[in-house]
Amino acid sequence: MVVLKMESSEKLLSSRLLSLLKNGQWGKDDVVNLFKALAKEFNSSNEDFHTWLMKILHQVEIHKIQMSDLTFQNGKIVDHVKAKMNEIGTHEKSLDDIVDEIHQQGNIDEEMMSQVKDIVSSVSECLRFSESDSAAPHLQGIKQKLFKICKAVQTRSKDRITPRVTQMVSWCILVLSKSSRLVQVLTGEGKSCIVAMFAAYQAMMGKTPDIISSSPVLAERDAKEWFDFYKELNVTVDSNINKSERELKKCYECKVVYGTTVSFAADWLRQRFLRQDVRSERAFQCVIVDEVDSLMLDKGLEVVYLSTEIPLMESLNGILAEIWLIINQLKRLETGEILGPVQLLSQLLSEIITENKNIDQHSIVQMAVEAGIMPIKSLKQTKENMTNALKQLDNASVMQMVAFLTIFVKNIPIYFIKLYIEGPDGTLQKLQEISPADTNKRQEISVLLLGNGKCCVVHSEEDSLDPSLRKKIKKSYQSESAKELNKSRIPGLEDLISGKMQTWFGSALLATKLTLGHEYVLHGEGVAPVDYSSTGVVQNDMRWGEGLQQFLEMKHQTKLSNMTLITNFMSNVGLFKKYTNQIYGITGTLGDQTELDMVKKVYNGIDTCEIPSFRQRKLYELEGMIIAEEDEWIQTICKVVKHQVTPTVYRGPRAALIICETINLAEMFHKTLSDTISLVNLKLYVNNNLDNSTITNSTVQAGVVIIATNLAGRGTDLKVSGSVNEAGGLFVMQTFLPLNDRVEQQAFGRTARQGNPGSAQIIMCASHFSDNLKLMMGEKTSLTSLLSCPDNLSKQMSKENVFEKAVNRYLENRSSQNHDAMISALTALLTTNSGNLEKAKDARNTGVKNRLSGFLEKDIPEITQKEELFSVYLDFLDNIYEDDIFSDQRDVIVSSLHECWGLWLLMYFSQEKSTEKITSLKEQLKGDLLSAKQKLLSKQSPSSMVYYYIRAGNNLREQERLAESIEMYTKALEAGASVEIIPLYNRALATIMKKNTGYIAKALADLENADKAINSYKSHLAHILACVKSSRQDLTTEGDTLLSKQFQMKCMIVDQLKINIQDAVMKLKRTESRGGNVRLLDKHTIFLAEDSLKRAIIRRDMSLPERLALIVIEDFIKRGEIKRRDVNLAEKFALLYAEDNTKRAERRGDVILTERLLFLLLEDSIHSSQKILQELMLEYEHIRSLGLDTIFTLDTIFSLMGFLSKVFR
After folding, report:
1. Any coiled-coil ranges, and where (predicted)?
2. How far is CA 937 from CA 752, 931, 1009, in A?
């Protein structure tokens, strides 16, 4: 046992000395000299040499002691190490030290720094000598304000501490800056305190600063934690997170407002676009941005928009479902080819013939006869037999198909057909090439022949998929009349479908490649993106565009959302630019010079400054590694982490943080490490939707391993125990090459905070490198040259063995000869090649420069142009609101204009027109909007969209202008409403209200047609569901999926409407037959539930959870006093039942046993009913947005005269 321990100690000694050279930035000669001095001093020690030496080297390492910090004159090197440890551990830098370090940056105004030094020096002295005084009357101007602010921090902040010199210096630099300024303050140095101090100063100067945090949680937390501080200075403060319109107005009346880019941008859109009065009096005077690099660089192009119900977008779900079904029928081969859906060769040829009008029917029959698949007599019946000729191929063998295609190309020499068959291993085997004589003018088609008349088109690349596949989609969604006109029958979307089909195919293909637990997660009842490359945050409020969100929802059969037609937006760049030259930011990582230069170009010469840490930072970066294969990479990381959290002869156990690129990899490491580390000590931190408080709010103890994504990087403050700091602090293992140096430094910033020790290391897997990174590396160096070379490793191990033996010989006989041999072996050991990790980082940084170049040259100009166009639209809206001519139908007209503007932007800006001069686009938009306005004035829809007519009809009906209302519903039907239910039902309602001659017959016809339209709509939903389910043949799902439950709710709503319609039809027929009249009662749409419940109770044809849900809705209708014009029912419902829950909680002690037992018996049904209830409320609001804002019930009125006139007519 002793021998094994000694061998382990010897190995550890070699690694410690090498670590000092590679990671401690010591020179080889310096390490040798230190070793000599320690070996000499050991002569008087009775401890084990290896253990004694490693303890000292460990202290040198974790306290980042440099050779220049030590002196060897008196021979007491150990005492010097201990003295330096104490000095580094407790010493805070002086004002002079900090100012000198800032001066060394060379980009700071000397005069300003002189002022900074004077202000901080004066205020620090007053704070030191007047701890009990709240004022320093001899201080004036900025000094007086800083003193007051510092006293408020002392007495009213959470920690009741005096601001550090570095914080006061940061504050002064921000205050003295004449325009925008960004400062870098290292993690753990008190950024939130600096932000609060500077915001308070701005408020004291009469400004209204907006503070932007990196997350809503931090915004709310900081506003709450610093509330007393601001109150002490008579400054009001609030946060704009999760507030109602009334609460927001009150919030923006405060001097200081905390929020996020999302909340500030959304509130501006509420004010400017939705005309809600939330921040009308507050100007964009000054902004203070925390984590400014992330928001300006990583998220600079993020766009915030307010979700608006655009009914026409729901019509696209059928097309998307068809695309998804077809894309999932594709097969991607390892060789790169993509096989299209299996189809009959006759179908493929029919498509070719339809496209080529030069191919006559007679020639097709001739080819079939010549190929021997039709008899000669068929030539006499050409028209009837062309289809039959192709049908003969439906059961043809491969050779028969080859024969026909050979004759086909011979007679129609514009095609070049490559034929393949499938090999035993699934690969393509070339069968034959059928080429025309003239090879210059030809269209190439590659086909895999499967036998029995079946085939697949072979695509060489994804771009070639769109032309052939879009025909199948268009064919599926065209009525006969539409086919003749070559237009989609979906109203208002013809151009959109034509222009976006290729994009949607691309999105569907991308959805098949994206991985759950990597780029996205399942959250709630849908799909949420993950910002895995930068922050690791699950972005709950973010949705992918261009159909990608919907395809991912179909992939997992979650609830299906509608594609968004963006009608309003604000980018982070646009938001920051509203503050002109009053942008102030703080971050732990400003970035390299390339990134700084880009920020200065975008934000007009914004200045930057790096603030030194208040204590020497003790981050010890271990040499990084690149491992070739994934298995070896996993084993290496687990071995390194296990070593760090296990005690050794020279230190106790540490704690470790492993940062993984994706959630899946984090979960894999968690599972792998559980074989060697207790599950109690393994913590998983990968999803911000989970409760992570046990990790973020607890002290990390020795032996604990936190396995996380980038979520544990920026903004996470991990507190470690004293024993962990004594052992070397938190160890951070970065398992991949981060997106940029800033993300890397944010990860490393989780350790070595506030003067405590810590170390970090990167170990990457070469097989995980992106194609772009490999390409960058290929231009500079070969990938294999970056990997650990076995020969070099074996040579290094040999050197270690020689050194270990030399040390042992010296310990046995401390002769000068053995001493020299030991030093010689150490020198050889320290002669080693440096790692190649920097080459990979260089390639990464080249990629960063390329991205930033595109950011400046393409992305920023594009988003700026979009926002300029949006500004034109907002000005146009101003005129609409000011024009009295629209006063009676303003809401209808505005919603229609929103749709027109959204489609205009989507179609004209996306078609590679963003490079046109913005002036011409603006003029085009103004002209198109004026044209739309003129059409609306003449009560015409500005496009082929019918929803204007439905909304206008509803508005006119409310004004009792019934004839005009009926006319609008009729126009909606004539224009081809995709779902006819609503205009038919609404026209029947208006007809009954008007009661003209023959109104009963007209209303009956409309209601009976609406009843049929419901069946058609349900068939449409069933078709979408069938397409999605058919695409999931590889996976089995037990029970109902979220998607099927969603569609069940949709069907439940229209079934309730169907009951309502059938009841009205029955009463109208009875009235018509008896010569009576009807009395109409119109109600809110939610009353459909009440009627449905009555029917269900009588028939007993509804499940218990569904009945419970409807009972709650009936209760809500009564107690909520629902009016016909009520909107936002979900919000009203939540408020009412929140009060119930509060009252129930207050009387919980009085609940009788019977009630408890009843709840337990019905618990599952109650839980299910809550889900149904939630879905129903959403569907009621959705169907109202489509135009069904009112339902009606009828009472029959009979008279004797009416009955007699009917009998004797």
Report:
1. none
2. 68, 10, 31
